[in-house]
């Protein structure tokens, strides 16, 4: 009866029982093989690259098994919450192609029948279960303040025993109803602690989805499950939520490995089925000859937002992560070049138990492959959306020249082996800027980048001769024949073999002539196919640019 009185003293306004809550969260109607996974971030800043990696694993495990993947926001620590973080998390997931079946939306509403999906909206649910634990003598109020806890710690250190709030050191573990009532009447703040049944002499074993069998000391600490402000701790809230929402598998960073004994104890004390846990090592960064973890403070490239701002396609990041998740993905990709990475089945036991290295060169190569598989229209759509947010100059150009830009992006894209020019959207403008007259004019103000063996006067002679013979509607073979003939007329070898046999007999070779025409059009020495460039630029622009060099 004293436990019942204690529960009513601490939570007089909580009238529901756990059974009332269970009725609102019936078991999910899924097959036995379907997995329910989640991503449960705190809204304390930008989503980091490690969180994105773990989230992709969770999403793939759920969806490849025809299960459910949901987003839950763990926002009970309001002091650390940063405004806009929830929106950032949602937009980042969408950008990287990680779609959640349930969770909070931009509108503030929830999608799904197992919400609310923000912990700050679930406080009353937690209190129902905390009251239930107190009623059954499994939790109790603790009125220790900072000074009390410090005195306990000093005594333990002097005796050289494990520090913490446990066993005989748990001052309020057996507090009476009258004592608690008196403390509350005096306005003394309190927390609620779990009365741990554990002992540090015993060990627990569990099978980690990634690391395999693991043995850890049992938890003997009377952990706090409700803070003085009435909010639950992470440990307690996540146990309630994962059970009610039907979570079957949890993928998270291995910094949480030491919390497994606490979490297992919580689920067992509450009488809940324990989800399966998989702990992954952090993604590492190469710095010089060594590897280290990404730093939240130092490494801008440690956030998902960085890769979005740089313009890496979301699907390229996900594709790259698949290589880190399971090493046999690369072989699968080689035999299935046209399939979506989502058709690859991942396995947790094949994951790298040590820290995977984020190889930027590998990421660039994969991103180029991904972009090369897109149609010109798809590239344009991605570029248009990205530049609208991150590159106003590019956005203005392509918005004003939509058809022209689409034709530019299609160069080399319809071949059997498409060009792989871009690894990210921020690469595009520097590579195609010469197509736009205003940027080209600005570039040539500092002079033309002619071959070293060709003077400006000779270049003008080449361009003038080209203008006389150039026919816009010529096929490529006829077009190049005219350039070879022009080369011969101006003292250049018509082919490289001829030039190499007697280099002193010529001003240069046909390649030099073509290079001058390329520079006149683009002021670049390395571009896509020259014939294709002319076709996209159109006859009028080609002649205008030729005339500009002649008059320079």
UniProtKB/TrEMBL annotation:
- Please classify the protein's predominant subcellular localization into one broad category: cytoplasm
The record lists Zn(2+) as bound by: 142, 144, 172, 174
Function according to Swiss-Prot or TrEMBL: Catalyzes the attachment of glutamate to tRNA(Glu) in a two-step reaction: glutamate is first activated by ATP to form Glu-AMP and then transferred to the acceptor end of tRNA(Glu).
Domain named Aminoacyl-tRNA synthetase class I anticodon-binding is located at 426-550
Instruction: Reply yes or no: does the keyword Nucleotide-binding apply.
Output: yes
Cofactor(s) the protein requires to work = Zn(2+)
Report the InterPro entries cross-referenced here.
aa-tRNA-synth_I_cd-bd, aa-tRNA-synth_I_codon-bd_sub2, aa_tRNA-synth_I_cd-bd_sf, Glu-tRNA-ligase_bac/mito, Glu/Gln-tRNA-synth, Glu/Gln-tRNA-synth_Ib_cat-dom, GluQ/Sye, Rossmann-like_a/b/a_fold
Catalytic activity of the protein: tRNA(Glu) + L-glutamate + ATP = L-glutamyl-tRNA(Glu) + AMP + diphosphate
Question: Pfam family example for this protein?
Answer: tRNA-synt_1c
The record's NCBIfam families line, in alphabetical order, gives: gltX_bact
Glutamyl/glutaminyl-tRNA synthetase class Ib catalytic domain: residues covered: 35-331
- Give Gene Ontology CC terms: cytosol
Cofactor info, note text: Binds 1 zinc ion per subunit.
Q: Which GO terms fall under biological process for this protein?
A: glutamyl-tRNA aminoacylation
Tell me the compartments it is located in: Cytoplasm
* Binding annotation for ATP: 296
> How is this protein organized at the quaternary level?
Monomer.
Q: What is this protein called?
A: Glutamate--tRNA ligase
Naturally occurring in which organism (per UniProt): Heyndrickxia sporothermodurans
Family the UniProt entry places it in: Belongs to the class-I aminoacyl-tRNA synthetase family. Glutamate--tRNA ligase type 1 subfamily.
Gene3D superfamilies given in the database record: 1.10.10.350, HUPs
Q: Does the keyword Cytoplasm apply?
A: yes
Q: Which UniProt keywords apply?
A: Aminoacyl-tRNA synthetase, ATP-binding, Cytoplasm, Ligase, Metal-binding, Nucleotide-binding, Protein biosynthesis, Zinc
- The record's EC number reads 6.1.1.17
Q: Per the Swiss-Prot or TrEMBL record, what residue ranges does the short sequence motif 'KMSKS' region cover?
A: 293-297
- MF (Gene Ontology): ATP binding; glutamate-tRNA ligase activity; tRNA binding; zinc ion binding
């Amino acid at each position: 009866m004293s436990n019942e009185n204690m529960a009513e003293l601490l939570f007089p306004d909580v009238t529901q029982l756990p059974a009332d809550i269970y009725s609102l969260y019936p078991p999910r109607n899924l097959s036995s093989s379907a997995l329910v996974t989640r991503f449960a971030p705190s809204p304390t800043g930008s989503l980091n690259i490690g969180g994105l990696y773990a989230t992709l694993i969770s999403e793939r495990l759920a969806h490849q098994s025809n299960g459910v993947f949901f987003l839950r926001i763990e926002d009970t620590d309001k002091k650390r919450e940063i405004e806009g973080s929830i929106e950032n998390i949602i937009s980042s997931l969408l950008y990287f192609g990680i779609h959640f079946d349930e969770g909070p939306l931009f509108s503030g509403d929830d999608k799904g029948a197992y919400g609310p999906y923000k912990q700050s909206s679930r406080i009353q649910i937690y209190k129902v279960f905390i009251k239930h634990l107190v009623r059954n003598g499994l939790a109790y109020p603790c009125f220790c303040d900072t000074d009390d806890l410090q005195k306990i710690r000093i005594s333990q250190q002097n005796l050289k025993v494990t520090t913490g709030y446990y066993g005989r050191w748990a001052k309020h573990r057996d507090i009476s109803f009258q004592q608690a009532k008196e403390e509350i009447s005096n306005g003394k703040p309190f927390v609620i602690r779990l009365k741990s049944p554990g002992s540090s002499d015993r060990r627990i074993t569990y099978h980690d989805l990634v690391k395999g069998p693991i043995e850890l000391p049992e938890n003997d600490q009377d952990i706090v499950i409700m803070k003085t402000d009435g909010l639950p701790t992470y440990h307690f809230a996540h146990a309630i939520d994962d059970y009610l929402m039907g979570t079957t598998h949890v993928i998270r960073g291995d910094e949480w490995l030491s919390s497994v004994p606490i979490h297992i104890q919580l689920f067992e004390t509450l009488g809940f089925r324990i989800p399966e846990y998989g702990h992954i090592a952090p993604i590492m960064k190469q710095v010089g000859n060594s590897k280290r973890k990404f730093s939240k403070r130092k490494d801008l490239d440690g956030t998902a937002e960085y890769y979005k701002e740089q313009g890496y396609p979301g699907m390229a990041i996900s594709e790259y992560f698949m290589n880190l998740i399971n090493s046999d993905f690369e072989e699968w990709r080689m035999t299935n070049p046209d399939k979506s990475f989502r058709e690859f089945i991942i396995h947790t036991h094949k994951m790298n138990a040590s820290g995977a290295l984020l190889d930027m060169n590998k990421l660039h190569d994969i991103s180029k492959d991904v972009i090369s598989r897109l149609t010109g229209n798809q590239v344009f759509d991605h570029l248009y959306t990205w530049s609208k947010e991150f590159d106003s100059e590019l956005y203005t150009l392509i918005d004003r020249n939509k058809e022209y830009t689409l034709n530019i992006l299609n160069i080399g894209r319809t071949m059997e082996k498409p060009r792989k020019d871009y690894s990210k959207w921020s690469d595009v403008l520097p590579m195609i800027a010469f197509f736009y007259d205003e940027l080209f004019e600005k570039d040539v103000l500092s002079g033309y980048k002619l071959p070293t063996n060709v003077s400006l006067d000779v270049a003008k002679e080449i361009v003038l001769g080209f203008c006389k013979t150039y026919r816009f509607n010529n096929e490529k073979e006829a077009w190049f024949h005219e350039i070879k003939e022009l080369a011969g007329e101006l003292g250049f070898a018509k082919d490289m073999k001829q030039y190499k046999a007697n280099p002193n007999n010529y001003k240069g070779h046909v390649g030099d002539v073509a290079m001058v025409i390329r520079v006149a059009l683009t002021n670049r020495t390395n571009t896509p196919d020259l014939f294709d460039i002319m076709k996209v630029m159109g006859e009028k622009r080609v002649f205008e640019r030729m005339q500009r060099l002649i008059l320079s």
